[in-house]
Design a protein that fits this description.
The longest helix is centred in the last third of the chain and has 12 residues. This protein is α+β, with helices and mostly antiparallel strands and 99 residues long. The two termini are 23 Å apart. The relative contact order is 0.23. It has a two-stranded antiparallel sheet with strand order 1-2.
């Protein structure tokens, strides 16, 4: 999940939530007991992931931002328009590295 997504920014500024895709923080920790893993507990910026993986000698090949709002409301349409112009605000990112 992309911390810098439109939804992440809105949640942070207007809803006092620091997540855009992950669920309730308590439930994320309870998943360890239920399933043996937590899943996504936080979002990342591309810079954080790039820095982490460069530390283990991987080289960035490509950054791909993906996802849209499925809401047909005017807010969803505006968000999709903004993301068409600025892909880095899409909700998900995929970083391709090579060794």
């Amino acid at each position: 999940p992309n911390l810098r997504s439109i939804k992440g920014i809105i949640n942070f500024l207007f809803r006092s939530k620091a997540y855009s895709c992950a669920g309730d923080l308590h439930w994320e920790w309870k998943k360890i007991e239920e399933f043996g893993h937590m899943g996504h507990i936080r979002e990342y910026t591309s810079r954080e992931v790039i820095h982490l993986l460069e530390q283990i000698r991987l080289e960035l090949d490509e950054v791909i931002y993906e996802g849209n709002f499925s809401s047909p409301s005017w807010k969803g349409k505006i968000a999709n328009f903004i993301m068409a112009i600025f892909p880095q605000f899409r909700p998900n990112m995929r970083l391709v590295f090579r060794k």
